[in-house]
Specification:
The complex is a heterodimer of chains A (167) and B (316).
Chain A lengths: L1 E6 L2 E6 L6 H8 L18 E4 L2 E4 L12 E3 L12 H8 L9 H16 L17 H7 L10 H15 L1
Parallel strand pairs in A: 1-5
Antiparallel strand pairs in A: 1-2, 3-4, 3-5
Helix pairs in contact in A: 2-5
Chain B lengths: L4 E4 L3 H10 L3 E4 L5 H6 L7 E4 L8 E3 L5 E4 L4 H6 L1 H6 L1 H8 L4 H6 L2 H5 L6 H4 L41 H7 L3 E5 L5 E5 H4 L18 E7 L7 E7 L7 E8 L2 E5 L6 E2 L1 H8 L4 H9 L11 H16 L5
Parallel strand pairs in B: 1-3, 2-3
Antiparallel strand pairs in B: 4-5, 5-8, 6-7, 6-8, 9-10, 10-11, 11-12
Helix pairs in contact in B: 5-9, 11-12, 12-13
Classes of the chains: A alpha+beta (167), B alpha+beta (316).
Chain lengths: 167, 316
C-alpha cells in the first residue's frame, strides 16, 4: 500500500504491507534504526517518536495510518556535530548506561517539554492548576519509558538541565 | 499478525456501512489496544477501517449545558481540555490515571470504551478463555484471579473492564452516541453500553455489528464535588486493582466488574443518610470474590469511603 510520510523533514514514499508498523517502516524500510524495538507492545517506550509534534509509541501504530504525517525520530533531533540541547543534557548528566532506551527517552523528553509548555496536566498536577516543573511531574510524565540500567535519577537531572537551557 | 486490508473511512456513515459489508472488519482509531492484540493474534481482523481521521474529535458545549466529546478525540485532548478540567475534573483525573503519555496521545475516546480486558487468561492463547475462545472454559475461575471481578461475574467469565475513563463517565451519567450501518443514530446510557458476561462473555457490548461510536455526551456537571481514586501495583503506568469515581451523589467503581460498576446501592444508602463507610458496606454485601481477590472488598470499601470524603471536601 503506497504511503507517504515526511520523516525528519524529508518526504518518503513507501509501498508497504498494511501490517507494517510505523516502527518497522522506520527501522526496516528507511534504515533509521535509532528508534528501538524493545517490547513491541507499547510497554517500554524505546520506540517513542514524535508524530506531528506529539510523542507516541511507533510500535503500536501502523505506517499506513500515518500517510501524510510528519515524523521526527532521533535521527532528526540532532547530529553528532550539532547535538540538540536535550542530547547535550543526557551526555552531561550521564543519563544512560547501555543507551538502548536513550533514543526513546530523548524523543519522549521532547514530547514532555511540549506538553508542559501547552499546560497539559498529569496525575501529579493539582486539579485546575498549571503544571509545575517538578521532579514528581517529570517522573510521572516519563513513566512510559523504561530504563533497565536504571539511570532514572540522571534522566530526571538531564530533563531539568535541558529545560533550563531551552527556556 | 494475520494479513488484513486497510481503508481510511470518508465519513462516520461510510465507515459503519463498510464495516457491515466485510466479515471480520474492525474499526481502528488510535490502535493502541487493537494492534497489541493483533500482534498476539488474539484479534484477527480481516479488514481495518481507519476512523481516526474522521471529523469527530471536537469537544464542544451542548445547548443543555453539558459537553459533547468526539469519539476520535485523544485521551490527552480530553484530559487537557479546559472545560473538562474545570467542570468535569473527575474525567480528567481518571484519564490521567490510565496508560502512559504516549498511549494517551494516541488512544481515542471510542477505543478506550471498547478496549478488551487485561485478564491474563484472555491474553494467553494457550489457556482456556470463554471470551477469546467461546466454550473453552474460564482459566481464571480457579486460577490466578487476583484481579478478577467481585460484581456481576458468571461461571463463564470473571474478567474486569479496565478503563479508567469509563468509570468517570459512568459516574457522570454520560451517554454514548452511535451510527449504525443503516445510517440510524442512537444514544445509549454509558452504563448500558457494556454487557455483563452471563454465558456469552465474548459479546461485550450492546452495539450491533458495524455500529460506530461517534461521540460521548455529558449532561451538565452534578452539584457537589468530584473525585477519582485508583489503587494499582505501581505508582504510574499500571492497570488498576480497583478505582472509584465520585460525581456529586453518584458513584462508580472500576476494575471490579466487566463494566464500569455504578454503585447504586451505595448511592441509595447515602441519600438515605448513611455514612460513606456504611454506604460502601451496603454496596459490598452484593460482592462475590473468588479467593485471590478477596482483598478487593476492604480495598474498595476504604478507597470509595476516602473518595466520597474527598469529593465532599473533607479530605481523607
Amino acid at each position: 500500500m503506497r504511503t507517504t510520510i515526511t520523516v525528519n523533514g524529508e518526504a518518503r514514499s513507501l509501498d508497504l504491507d498494511p501490517r507494517t508498523t510505523l516502527l518497522d517502516a522506520l527501522r526496516e524500510h528507511l534504515k533509521l534504526t535509532g528508534a528501538k524495538k524493545g517490547c513491541d507492545h507499547g510497554q517500554c517506550g524505546a520506540c517513542t517518536v514524535l508524530v506531528n509534534g506529539v510523542r507516541i509509541n511507533a510500535c503500536l501504530s501502523l505506517a499506513v495510518m500515518h500517510d501524510g504525517d510528519e515524523v521526527i525520530s532521533i535521527e532528526g533531533v540532532g547530529t553528532p556535530d550539532r547535538l540538540h540541547p536535550v542530547q547535550v543534557a543526557f551526555l552531561n548528566q550521564d543519563a544512560f548506561q547501555c543507551g538502548y532506551c536513550t533514543p526513546g527517552q530523548i524523543c519522549s523528553t521532547l514530547g514532555l517539554l511540549a506538553e508542559l509548555e501547552a499546560g497539559h496536566p498529569s496525575q501529579e498536577t493539582a486539579p485546575g492548576a498549571k503544571p509545575e516543573f517538578t521532579g514528581d511531574e517529570i517522573r510521572e510524565r516519563m513513566s512510559g519509558n523504561i530504563c533497565r540500567c536504571s539511570a532514572y535519577p540522571q534522566i530526571v537531572a538531564a530533563i531539568r538541565q535541558a529545560a533550563e537551557q531551552m527556556a | 499478525m494475520k494479513p488484513f486490508t486497510y481503508e481510511r473511512a470518508e465519513s462516520p456513515a461510510a465507515a459503519a456501512k463498510a464495516a457491515a459489508l466485510t466479515k471480520g472488519a474492525r474499526f481502528i482509531a488510535g490502535g493502541t489496544n487493537l494492534l497489541d492484540l493483533m500482534k498476539l493474534e488474539i484479534e484477527q481482523p480481516t479488514h481495518l477501517i481507519d476512523v481516526g481521521r474522521l471529523p469527530m474529535a471536537a469537544i464542544a458545549p451542548t445547548p443543555e449545558g453539558g459537553l459533547t466529546i468526539g469519539a476520535a478525540a485523544t485521551n490527552t485532548a480530553v484530559a487537557a481540555h479546559a472545560d473538562v478540567r474545570a467542570r468535569y475534573p473527575v474525567l480528567s483525573q481518571a484519564i490521567l490515571a490510565g496508560g502512559s503519555p504516549q498511549l494517551r496521545n494516541k488512544a481515542s475516546v471510542g477505543g478506550n470504551l471498547l478496549q478488551r480486558t487485561r485478564c491474563a487468561y484472555f491474553y494467553d492463547a494457550s489457556k482456556p478463555c470463554n471470551k477469546r475462545a467461546p466454550g473453552s472454559g474460564c482459566g481464571a475461575l480457579e486460577g490466578l484471579n487476583r484481579n478478577a471481578a467481585i460484581f456481576g461475574a458468571s461461571q463463564a467469565c470473571i474478567a474486569t473492564h479496565t478503563s479508567d475513563m469509563a468509570v468517570a463517565l459512568a459516574a457522570l451519567n454520560a451517554r454514548v452516541e452511535t451510527i449504525s450501518p443503516s445510517g440510524d443514530t442512537r444514544s445509549i446510557p454509558l452504563t448500558d453500553l457494556h454487557r455483563l458476561p452471563g454465558d456469552m462473555p465474548h459479546v461485550e457490548t450492546v452495539l450491533v455489528p458495524g455500529e460506530l461510536i461517534t461521540a460521548v455526551t455529558l449532561p451538565p456537571p452534578p452539584v457537589g464535588g468530584q473525585a477519582y481514586r485508583k489503587v494499582r501495583d505501581r505508582a504510574s503506568y499500571a492497570g488498576g486493582l480497583a478505582s472509584v469515581a465520585v460525581a456529586g451523589g453518584d458513584l462508580a467503581l472500576g476494575m471490579v466488574a466487566l463494566k464500569p460498576w455504578r454503585a447504586a446501592g451505595a448511592e441509595r444508602a447515602l441519600r438515605a443518610g448513611a455514612s460513606p463507610a456504611e454506604a460502601m458496606a451496603a454496596e459490598l454485601e452484593g460482592a462475590s470474590p473468588r479467593g485471590r481477590n478477596d482483598f478487593k472488598i476492604p480495598l474498595v470499601a476504604r478507597l470509595a469511603t476516602a473518595a466520597i470524603h474527598e469529593a465532599n471536601g473533607r479530605g481523607a
